[in-house]
Amino acid sequence: MGVLEKKLSLKSQEKLLDDCVNRGVSLSEVLLQRGLSYDALRYRDYCDFTTQENNSETLDDMEKLPPTIPAVSFFSGAGGLNIGFEYAGFDNIVSVECNEIFCNTLRKNYPDKIVIGPPHHSGDVREREVLENTLKDAIGSGKPFDGIFHGGPPCQPFSIAANQRFSKESDNFKRQGFNDEEKGELLFDYLWYIKRFLPKAFLIENVAGIAGCDTDGKIQDALDEIAGLGYEILSPQIVNAANYGVPQNRMRWIIIGTRIGKPIKFPSPNEYIATCYDVFSRDVSGVENHQTREHTAASVKRYMQLAYGVRDKLGRVDRLNPYLPSKTVIAGGTKGGGRSHLHPYSPRTISVRECARLQTFPDDYIFTGATARQFTQVGNAVPPLLAYKIALQIRAGIK
Fold this sequence. Notes:
Shape: elongated
Strand content: 5-15%
CATH superfamily of the largest domain: Vaccinia Virus protein VP39
Structural class: alpha/beta
CATH class of the largest domain: Alpha Beta
Oligomer: single chain
Number of helices: 14
Radius of gyration: 22 Å
């Protein structure tokens, strides 16, 4: 059921929760027996919906342009950049991804496109010569490539949030940056393919924290080498997705390079900050990927005491404030359980689909795999709406 489900009275809810705790019975089963969902529950600090101006946007609001410019997607993940570039008139002819679950999602949504990745290929950009030959088979061996490369190398080595999942005593608590043996050098592998294929333009995306890890200037040295091949490179842009219509605070680091003799103009921010109000005022009934966690009565008793924007310290989850942008949608660990923020109106964590709406994925885009891995896919993604606005600028610049 959606957010329009009628709420229990506070008195009835407290009686129900106390009864579940005292008898040691499952809250989810009791709700099911009564024909209710967790959306029938309320916070102690709760008010009915009030109308406010909607400052968020969706891709449904945008004109989807015909796909006239070829693109290759690296580190494709669940396809956030792919969607944005697709709506902006690019044809994502190839996606490169090393995670099989992510590949399954890409193949589910793009059955007619080439996905280089498990189980038929490693999708590992570190296997440079192998992947280069596979790409040549897919897009041709001639260079320069008359299209665009886009990709966001894994951000975990540079992400503050990703590493703070560990205890302070753990070696993982501090960002490993370029010293991360598995993922720290993937940016430079990506740049290697740019040098080999010379696309008309390229985009690099990562967390804002990557800039603080580049104490030796490795990124700038690598970009200077790329510039020597005839590229005009826009200075790194650190942007908040909420300034571009995305109903979420999400800081990203963006670099754009073009081989057209002039730099691309970065899109201007909106005059307003998008809030997450609209995401939670839309019904979610019947939409895929909306399975919600079955919280215990004890957990709900804690959650329902929280005011807007306050964190439950035991569960490390935050109640969202609908009148502000959402806090950053997180991926969770690739091996542990996915987790999300608390719904602003119902004392439960939000679903994969609600996270996907905060990320501006279209509702008809389906995520595959276990629910925990769906959270990972959504949280790792670039917001498609942000990608769309950047892609429009690139398209205008290289046409």
